[in-house]
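Run folding on both entries below.
>entry_1
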Amino acid sequence: KSFTFNTNVLPTTTGITLLNVPSFIAPGQSYTVALDNASETDADGQTITYSLTANDANITFTPTANLHEFTMAVGALAPRNASIDITLRTNDGLEDGATKLFTAKTKVNILPDISAFAHTVPSKMYPGQVASIAFTGITDTTLIGGLSISLVSNTDDFIFGKTSGINVGESISLTCAAGATRGANTTITLSVTDGVETITTNVVTSVNQ
């Protein structure tokens, strides 16, 4: 009596690509990435499972309910400016198969720098007064879409000529409303985004008594 044994055929990573990985990632955020051209079974019919790991332990990958899709979670301690390699591993239930390294697939974002922030918002204005204001001293090394500033005021005493899509150094108008409350302070919150993350800072002005 004879027996035939087949040698296991290892799964491969040939032709597999990694999709939807952003060029820059932010600590504390999650992203959905996917494998393209990944087979469900290997050459001898064994079901293949895939796993992803990063070269930094602060970045983890968890399979989703969708086939060959993963949630990439970026920990709060992920090092800024780190270049991230991602390794794909395969297993057919019997053995580990081929691996594939996606080198420098993404990078951890650097926040906009507001350490030299300056502005030309008057400290006091009178009702009906119009001033030209600008915000400077904000820099960034990522610049996915360029720095963009948006403004929100905690009162209706001041009216901006523009409240979003403001460039660093761009002049916009600031009007003290005719019915502004004399002596009242207004906090203007600036949100600065680099296309990946947003950082905020405040400017205080008031209506002259």
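>entry_2
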Amino acid sequence: GASSDLGTGCIDMDEVTGITVDAKADIDLGSKASFQALTVLDASASVSGRSIVLANKSATGTDVSLTGGSGSDVFDVSAMDANADLTVSMGGGNDTIAVAKDNIQTDWRIDGGSGTNIIQTDKEITITSVFTNFQGLAFKGSSDVVQDMTNVPSISSVYINVDGDKAITISNLDDGDVVTLQGDKTTDSGAAVTLQGDGGVNTISLI
């Protein structure tokens, strides 16, 4: 069937505690931070993609489990912080997890699964133990970034799409890594981008 949009006004999102998805068409669960009571999203049987933006939890220590299917999922958990004990398994497909650097907790576990998967963040990633099976790192926001690639050892593609004349430094890039500048605000506003290799012989592609 056709894709579905279950955004604001369709359901009382802040009362929902669990969602199970078994779908063949993409499902958009809204573009605003919602589902404050949600603790379980299970889309493991679904072959479509899902898009969801999750609000923070009101109580500390709330277990939150998100499971994607074989489609391409976009899970935005950037509003979550220490109140959430977060476990994410994104499954198959080319997936994206959106996080806020200052909200990431050391006990979170976020697995991109199979496919080509991207971490989208506002600032640099410094906690190495949280993310597994991700190949891309996308910076989107209005902050300066100083990213040491040894903190994200599986990443080989970096995407930079920032507002204004920000300073972006990417260090310890591996041989063959690809850095892509995206958006007019990055390329036209004088963003200062510095790329540094890991000390060996590096061939880095800038697109």
